[in-house]
């Protein structure tokens, strides 16, 4: 990352504001829901080995809406089970939102939540220090591998926690998305080298292939309206640019050359399509499912 630029992840309140606008402007959660209701049930069918109690770990669970939809499908696939749900989320704001959601949503008596306000790396350290032996039937890591230093090591640790027939589900931006083009072009200027911010499913597949790990993969079509980014001084456009570049106050702190280059690329057919006066960014996601270590 260029020395004059600061990573958006360093300002949680600004990040949450950008993220909420991103959700409003994109079909991200809708494409996740389509996957959860149409494809996830078959993935979850084989977990648990007939047990009446299942252990689930959610890493980077955010405010919990997507987690609870996955747990609902799990319960439909395995009627009568109880669930121990380990929630791992570093943002106190998001974790509190998750707690409130659980307290207000009816029919969740079968779930016992354990709240861990920590990063994936802190959770790994905590798990090892406590010498935990509990195994998980289902672990999901939704849009979070960008925030760890070594995605391969983090995946390996969580995979090692899987019980017999357990599944590890990873969801992140697709190697076929506009994000991949943006990051490939401006990785050195934009990406925070302390974390793996510019990782896509393409990178994860290459990593797994190199280790001979088998997996199933799915592409989830998604898009994002970034039209406001092209109006100078537009407050929402600036928030979206912060989110796209992961740079705090990108419009104010980036050089004029970098800003012009990023805006030009965001408009390029490799990243977006223009339709009815709108610029629609390719926000496709990918899902990778890995089985228990054998």
Automatic annotation (TrEMBL):
The lineage of its organism: Eukaryota, Metazoa, Chordata, Craniata, Vertebrata. One of its GO terms (molecular function) is N-methyltransferase activity. It comes from Zoarces viviparus. Monomer. GO terms for biological process: methylation. The keyword Methyltransferase applies. This is Histamine N-methyltransferase. Pfam families: Methyltransf_23. The keyword Metal-binding does not apply. It comes from the Eukaryota. Substrate binds at residues 28, 283. InterPro entries: HHMT-like, SAM-dependent_MTases_sf.
